[in-house]
Every structure is written in structure tokens, then in C-alpha cells.
């Protein structure tokens, strides 16, 4: 059976084209990435995920609750797309027995589902390349009841196959290094096939 286009297929296709064109225009995010008033920003060297201040600058309450160091570079890269707004993260933690207790993840908001699809395609490309220790993906989640906004999470989907968090910490590095280029390619492919 072939998937039938929705009733508003033409209107939807035009919105998808506009969103993909916006991805081309906005990505990467204009610098500075974390926040406009970043005291560390230097227009000569630019903004990058190696900045010692990103854990504090990316957080809405950076002095009290900086982003954990191992996940901060990935949160930075997701923000650098210019299309997603990271809103919560965890670098992942083992319990006292050395087994995974909390998996790493970055939650983010997105105003276009096609951008989330392109991000998912990029993550799937990394999964297929076998550069990650386990399968990663983008899932829909939510925060508190008083926040009705849909939230997405980039996270490992099968972390139980691992002994501890260390392989996932290595995955965070691979994702931060490679996701941006793969995302741009995924957007280009979708745009070229949008008709």
C-alpha cells in the first residue's frame, strides 16, 4: 500500500519547501551562538563548542545550573543549527555499580517538523555508519504539565546494551563533530525532492 498524501498535500509541500529554504538560510546560527551578550565572544576567533563558557552561557540559569560538560558541545551544535532551541540536557550517569543509570540526552524545541525529520535523517546516517556505540534517535517528549509545548529529545534508543555510560560519552563527541554537516545534507536532499 502506498502512503496517500494528506488532504492539504500541496499547501503542506509549500510549507516544507519554505522551512527547508529557511534551514539553508539560518544554519549555522549567527554568532554568538549561546546568547548575544556573551562576554567570551571574539569576532576574530568566532564562536565554537570548545569555549570554556558554553556550559554556563547555554543554560538559562548558568551560574546556578550550568549544562554538564560532556553534553554541552552537543547542545551547542544543536543550537548552532539556528532552528532548534535546546531546553534541557543530561550527560548521562552510571549508578554505584557502574551500570547506566541516566542516559545522555538533549531536549529541544523545534517549530518545524521537517527540521526534526532532517535531524533524524542525519542521526540515522550516523547510526548506519556504525560510528556510534548504540542506536540513537530523536523522540517526542514533554516537560511539566504547565508547559504544553512539544519537546524533542536526541538520545540513545538502546542504551541497555552497554555496560556503562562511557561509550555514550564518546557518542556525544561523534554527534557534536558530525551532526551539523549531515543535517545540512539531509535538508538539501529533502529540499531537492520536495518537488
Write down the secondary-structure element order: HHHEEEEHEEH
- Based on Cα principal axes, name the global outline: globular
Structural class: alpha+beta
Percent range for helical residues? Answer: 25-40%
How many E strands? 6
Mean pLDDT: 88
Unreliable runs, pLDDT <50, ≥5 residues?
none
Radius of gyration (CA) equals: 18 Å
The CA-CA distance between the termini, in Å, is 22 Å
Number of domains: 1
Task: Name the descriptors.
alpha+beta, globular, four-stranded antiparallel β-sheet, 195 residues, 38% helix, two-stranded antiparallel sheet, 5 helices, 6 strands
What does this protein look like?
This protein has one domain. The protein is 38% helix and 15% strand. The chain is built from five helices and six strands; from the N terminus they run H-H-H-E-E-E-E-H-E-E-H. Helix 1 (9-26) packs across helix 5 (166-192) and helix 3 runs parallel beside helix 5 (166-192). The model has no long low-confidence stretch (mean pLDDT 88).
What does this entry show, briefly?
By secondary structure, the protein is of the alpha+beta class.
Q: What is the topology?
A:
Blueprint: H1 9-26, H2 54-57, H3 72-80, E1 84-90, E2 93-94, E3 100-102, E4 105-110, H4 113-129, E5 136-141, E6 151-156, H5 166-192
Antiparallel strand pairs: 1-4, 2-3, 4-6, 5-6
Amino acid at each position: 500500500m502506498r502512503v496517500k498524501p494528506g488532504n492539504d498535500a500541496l499547501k503542506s509541500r509549500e510549507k516544507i519547501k519554505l522551512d527547508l529554504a529557511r534551514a539553508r538560510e539560518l544554519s549555522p546560527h549567527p554568532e554568538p551562538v549561546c546568547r548575544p551578550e556573551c562576554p567570551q565572544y571574539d569576532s576574530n576567533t568566532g564562536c565554537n563548542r570548545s569555549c570554556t563558557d558554553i556550559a554556563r552561557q547555554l543554560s538559562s540559569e548558568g551560574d546556578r545550573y550550568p549544562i554538564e560538560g560532556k553534553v554541552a558541545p552537543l547542545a551547542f551544535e544543536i543550537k548552532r543549527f539556528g532552528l532548534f532551541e535546546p531546553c534541557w540536557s543530561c550527560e548521562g550517569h552510571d549508578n554505584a555499580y557502574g551500570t547506566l543509570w541516566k542516559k545522555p540526552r538533549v531536549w529541544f524545541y523545534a517549530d518545524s517538523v521537517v527540521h526534526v525529520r532532517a535531524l533524524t535523517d542525519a542521526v540515522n546516517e550516523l547510526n548506519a555508519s556504525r560510528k556510534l556505540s548504540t542506536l540513537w534517535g530523536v523522540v517526542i517528549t514533554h516537560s511539566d504539565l504547565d508547559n504544553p509545548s512539544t519537546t524533542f529529545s536526541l538520545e540513545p534508543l538502546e542504551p541497555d546494551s552497554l555496560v556503562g555510560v562511557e561509550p555514550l560519552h564518546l557518542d556525544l563527541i561523534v554527534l557534536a563533530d558530525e551532526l551539523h554537516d549531515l543535517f545540512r545534507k539531509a535538508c538539501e536532499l529533502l529540499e531537492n525532492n520536495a518537488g
